[in-house]
Design brief:
Blueprint lengths: L2 E5 L2 E3 L5 E8 L7 E7 L6 E6 L6 E3 L7 E6 L4 E6 L8 E8 L5 E2 L3 E5 L2
Parallel strand pairs: 2-11
Antiparallel strand pairs: 1-3, 3-8, 4-5, 4-9, 5-6, 7-8, 9-10, 9-11
Length: 116
């Protein structure tokens, strides 16, 4: 059974940090690139960051560059999103997606709320 399970979300004050995890099972994780998306209330889902299958290349949207870091550990079938210097506008449900030549897989999402 294919699964992607996100964890690590929560409530954090502005300027704080969180690390999200995306654990995969049921498919060959190391064959897939991984992206993190987020969706804020009333807004469309947007791509935040992505990493290639072996972790050799990463990309970020401008609003998170220098604050977020995407990484992966293929031995643990897990991808991560380290989020530092969080801002209220980072509040959203964060989703991971594994994608490649075949079907794509999505996790169920984890809520991140940045508020004082």
């Amino acid at each position: 059974q294919v699964q992607l399970v996100e964890s690590g979300g929560g409530l954090v004050q502005p300027g704080g940090s969180l690390r999200l995890s995306c654990e995969a099972s049921g498919f060959t994780f190391s064959n897939y690139a991984v992206s993190w998306y987020r969706q804020a209330p009333g807004k469309e889902r947007e791509l935040v960051a992505r990493i290639t299958s072996l972790g050799s290349s990463t990309n970020y949207i401008d609003s998170v560059k220098g604050r977020f870091t995407i990484s992966r550990d293929n031995a643990k079938n897990t991808a991560y999103l380290q989020m530092n210097s969080l801002k209220p506008e980072d509040t959203a449900v964060y989703y991971c997606k594994a994608w490649g030549w075949g079907p794509s897989y999505w996790g169920q999402g984890t809520q991140v709320t940045v508020s004082s």
